[in-house]
Design brief:
The complex is a heterodimer. By secondary structure, chain A is α+β, with helices and mostly antiparallel strands. Chain A has 3 domains: about 45-140 and about 210-255 and about 265-295, Aldehyde Oxidoreductase, domain 3, CATH 3.90.1170.50; about 300-475 and about 620-765, Aldehyde Oxidoreductase, domain 4, CATH 3.30.365.10; about 480-620, Aldehyde Oxidoreductase, domain 4 (2-Layer Sandwich), CATH 3.30.365. Chain A has a 7-stranded mixed β-sheet, with helices on both faces. The relative contact order of chain A is 0.13. Helix content of chain B is about 35%, strand content about 15%. Chain B folds into 2 domains: about 1-75, Ubiquitin-like (UB roll), CATH 3.10.20; about 85-145, [2Fe-2S]-binding domain (DNA polymerase, domain 1, Orthogonal Bundle), CATH 1.10.150.120. Chain B is globular. The chains are: A alpha+beta, B alpha+beta. Chains A and B meet through α1 and α18 of A and α3, α4, α5 and α6 of B. Bound molecules: FE2/S2 (inorganic) cluster (2 copies). One FE2/S2 (inorganic) cluster binds near residues 37, 41 and 46 of chain B. Chain A: This is Aldehyde oxidase.
């Protein structure tokens, strides 16, 4: 079809505020979440978690537990053949280590799964869990990633694992890359900076816990209703683990109470499904908040050694990055998170010489997984604090230093080809970058020149800090989405999309894209998403892929439908040329036929057929959105307490599809990173047990903790994105933590290279303790 | 054990097991707008109004509700007839995943019943017990401030 060139101004629905398509149900408290149903004879499942960081299970005695009234089933490693899989919830073949059994005879972290009880009531399941007698042979635990490679403790002794680099050295994955000649460039550089940075375990902390409900339907098919970001991967992986045919599984994704990566994991679906398959009864498993905080997933801790060779004028000539990533007890997402750290940290700086050594290692600690940002927050913390150090040392304004060193429009990014998602990637070129505007806008909004340069004195000192960063828009060459659209006789359209709305508003955004193409109001698009029986495939909601990839699929499908409407209209008008306007097909002579007439006639009287189309979309591009984050903070130099006063976040997300929702993404990402900076970190005792396993001790930001937030978008028109769009979901989480660290230096001269930032570290830096 | 109280405007007699919480009772009655985020009184997802005050229903034992007026978001408005706060939350984009939303709306309603003209500080205080991981509270605060 001859596609109309759309500019921002003549778009009616894209780029406009639209009330969420699921909003009415959500504000009125409709039963739309996974747990909002009651099924007859439902069994409640509780998990027995390992209290030890590392142990062999010598024996499990379930006889007492089985006697608790109401207990129907107890599952342990004795009930399953040895089969290794990964819980990562990624596309096939997964780039994560296949090192996990549904239940294992060795436990490798405090929280590892030992047994499951299914009972008629939750209370009975809880009581029975207490009555399972496990005899452990306690093994020495590996609790320091710096020791992993040389330790004589092996977290995974067993053979038969795949996608593990060298289990004897606890090495999950290793990445090496070099571009140019880093050592020669370091020699020639005027200055060489070298520092070590580190970041801790942090939790996604979605408010809805992991919850899955399973049952057998009338046709004896297994239904899995689960809070997941990846329904199609849940279907494939449950089928694999339980050796049950894909054709007999249906995964339904209802509304999801937040995911942030954590619900990409196949955390409990396979256990819930196993109970239903073995008993024939519906089953339900829901994590408690405590379980979320010790037996779910988190952000990978990393130790990053960075070396940069810099010229006197501030241009970075060489970057040498060394990552040691703590993969915890299982290698889910270890390789790919690390490769994103490396890819993002290395590709956003124009330096011609770059080198990487990344090693992800096992420890007997909690299992990290996917968390919004996926490696980028770790990488940008190190890189952007180092840039601040360079700016200070060379007496160049930090904003100026960034202008000099970031990649620009038209640049090729050769490192992206070397560092793909866990393997070789695809060539990357920057078609659009609003970075320069992001820097300049942010400067204005935070009042940079005045606050950065003001005299710092007194007990409470004010400072500002800034960073810049990028992300991707989907995983190039890997992510794929499909959509299907059919027309109804009142000119409404059913849009069935594989895309998974996890609270991000993607259903609404996809409806806007379809509405824009089909030239009908958004209310005319009825969205149904991610149900493996009803909608076409989608790799899932991760890697900021939904707008760019799923949006692309919807746009294509809508364009096909529009063409069919036009063709049918022309036939009805008996003309060769016509156009579409205001829900009508109009001929040159002014005769017209409405969408309603077209569909009704197609249904009942003329060349009877359903106007409908499907489309798939994938991309070898993953155009980076860009962002700058500026922080204004105050440090109390007596107590070491940091108060964040204002965060300015300026993003280039291409053409924003829904400005209000895009702002919401930024506003929601900021407190997650404020927490990462100041209050959110998992604390372990000396035996490897997490100790802050509730929201009182693991403090996420509340309404009273929030600083002033200013969000702003600069416009670019990404040629490869639907209507010029790039992604937005992840990028704003990268900035606040390093911006705060830099602002603290500006305020009081204390350089912090390790998260979390605590009053103690600041007082130490000030020489007060 | 038995109690009598008003639930969303209706005189209600409830039988309950010792130790049962209002949260469990409400969900067993298919009032699904009260959500579980912790069952420890830390998150506010289970908020209900008890005599016009926003409370964590997961901490309220059934035997203490005798004679009380209990409300959930269902009592404020329905799909066909939204309460103005529900509408405001929608219009301002204060709903993302929506899991915390019924609780947020009830906490806001409790505030507005007491204080028709709350300051931003008042709103922050009123929402302090309702954790939201999606919105950064920016738009929920705005939704209540415009009242
Ligand atoms: S569920 Fe009641 S406060 Fe969290
Ligand atoms: S909207 Fe998701 S927790 Fe508040």
């Amino acid at each position: 079809m001859n596609e109309k060139q759309t500019t921002n101004n003549d778009m009616k629905y894209v780029g406009k505020k639209t009330v969420r398509v699921d909003g009415l149900a959500l504000v009125s408290g409709q039963p739309v979440f996974a747990d909002d149903l009651q099924l007859r004879d439902m069994l409640h499942i509780k998990i027995l978690h390992s209290p030890h960081a590392h142990a062999h299970i010598k024996s499990i005695d379930t006889s007492l537990a089985a006697q608790v009234p109401g207990v129907q089933l107890i599952l342990t490693h004795e009930d399953f053949e040895t089969h290794y899989y990964t819980t990562a919830g990624q596309g096939y073949p997964e780039p994560s280590s296949r090192d996990t059994r549904i239940f294992d005879s060795t436990v490798r972290y405090v929280g590892d799964r030992v047994a499951a009880v299914a009972a008629e009531t939750l209370a009975a399941a809880e009581e029975a869990i207490e009555k399972i007698k496990v005899e452990y042979e306690i093994l020495e635990a590996l609790l320091d990633p710096r020791e992993s490679l040389t330790s004589n403790i092996m977290v995974h002794e067993q053979s038969g694992l795949t996608m593990v680099h060298d289990h004897k050295r606890n090495l999950i994955a290793e990445l090496k890359a070099e571009l140019g000649d880093v050592e020669a460039a370091m020699e020639k550089a005027d200055h060489v900076f070298e520092q070590e940075y580190s970041v801790p375990f942090a939790q996604q902390s979605h408010i809805e816990p992991h919850i899955a409900v399973t049952w057998m339907d009338e046709h004896n098919r297994l239904i899995i209703r689960t809070a997941t970001q990846v329904p199609f991967h849940v279907r494939r992986i449950v089928a694999e683990v339980l050796d049950f045919p894909i054709s007999r599984i249906r995964v339904i994704k209802p509304r999801i109470g937040g995911g942030f990566g954590s619900k990409q994991e196949i955390l409990n679906e396979e256990v819930c499904a196993a109970v239903t398959l073995k008993t024939g009864q519906p089953a339900r498993i829901e994590y408690t908040r405590e379980e979320e905080l010790f037996a779910a997933r988190s952000r990978h801790p990393q130790i990053l050694k960075v070396r940069m060779g810099v010229k006197n004028d501030g241009f970075i000539e060489a970057i040498d990055l060394n990552i040691l990533e703590n993969g915890g007890a299982y290698g889910t997402h270890s390789l790919t998170v690390m490769s994103v750290t490396a890819n993002k940290a290395l590709s956003f700086y124009a330096a011609p010489n770059k080198k990487l050594l990344g090693q992800a290692v096992y420890t007997n600690m909690s299992v990290p997984g996917a968390y919004r940002g996926y490696g980028a927050p770790q990488g940008f913390f190190a890189m952007e604090v180092m840039l601040d150090e360079i700016a200070t040392e060379l007496k160049i304004d930090p904003t100026e230093l960034r202008h000099k060193n970031y990649i620009k429009e038209g640049d090729d990014v050769p490192i992206a080809k070397i560092l793909g998602e866990g393997g070789e990637g695809y060539p990357m070129k920057i078609y659009t970058s609003g970075m320069a505007d992001c820097i300049d806008e942010g400067k204005k909004l935070i009042n940079w020149d005045e606050l950065y340069n003001e005299e710092k004195s007194g007990r409470v000192r004010r400072g500002v800090g800034m960073i810049g960063c990028g992300q991707g828009s989907g995983i190039p060459g890997i992510d794929m989405a499909a959509a299907f659209i059919k027309m109804n006789e009142d000119a409404s359209f059913n849009l069935l999309a594989g895309a998974t709305d996890i609270g991000t508003g993607s259903d609404t955004m996809l409806a806007q894209i379809a509405a824009e193409v089909l030239e009908v109001p958004v209310e005319k698009i009825i969205v149904y998403s991610s149900d493996t029986d009803m909608t076409p495939f989608d790799t899932g909601a991760y890697a900021s892929s939904t707008t760019y990839i799923s949006g692309g699929a919807v746009k294509k499908a809508a364009e096909k439908v529009k063409q069919q409407i036009l063709d049918m209209g022309k036939k009805l008008l008996e003309v060769d040329e016509a156009s579409i306007k205001n829900g009508c097909v109009i001929a040159a002579d002014g005769n017209s036929v409405t969408y309603q007439e077209i569909c009704t006639k197609a249904f009942y009287t003329h060349e009877q057929h359903q106007i409908m189309a499907n489309a798939s979309h994938m991309s070898y591009d993953s155009p980076p959105p860009f962002n700058t984050t500026f922080a204004e903070i105050e440090v109390d130099t007596e107590t070491g307490i940091v108060r964040v006063k204002k965060i300015v976040s300026v993003s280039d997300a291409g053409q924003v599809i829904n400005p209000q929702m895009a702002e919401g993404q930024v506003e929601g990402a900021i407190p997650q990173s404020l927490g990462y900076a100041l209050s959110e970190y998992m604390i372990f005792d000396d035996k490897g047990a997490p100790i802050n396993t509730n929201f009182f001790d693991y403090h996420i930001h509340t309404a009273i903790d929030m600083p002033e937030i200013v969000t702003k978008f600069v416009h670019t028109d990404e040629p490869t994105g639907p209507f010029g769009a790039k992604a937005i979901a992840e990028i704003p989480i990268n900035g606040p933590a390093p911006a705060i660290a830099n602002a603290i230096y500006n305020a009081c001269g204390v350089r912090l290279r390790e998260l979390p930032i605590t009053p103690e570290k600041i007082l130490k830096g000030l020489g007060k303790i | 054990m038995k109690v009598t109280f008003t639930l969303n405007g209706k005189e209600t007699k409830a039988e309950f097991a010792p130790g049962e919480t209002l949260f469990h009772y409400l969900r067993s009655q298919e009032i699904y707008s009260v959500k579980n985020g912790c069952e420890l009184g830390e998150c506010g997802a289970c908020t209900a109004l008890v005599d016009n005050k926003a409370q964590n229903s997961c901490l309220i034992m059934m035997h203490t509700v005798e004679g009380k007026k209990i409300e959930t978001v269902e009592n404020l408005g329905s799909k066909n007839n939204l309460h103005h706060l529900q509408q405001k939350f929608l219009d301002e984009g204060a709903v993302q995943c929506g899991y915390c939303t019924p609780g947020m709306i009830l906490a806001s309603e409790a505030l507005l019943r007491e204080n028709k003209q709350p300051s931003t500080e008042d709103i922050r205080d009123a929402l302090a017990g309702n954790l939201c991981r999606c919105t950064g509270y920016v738009k929920p605060i705005k939704a209540v401030s415009h009242e």
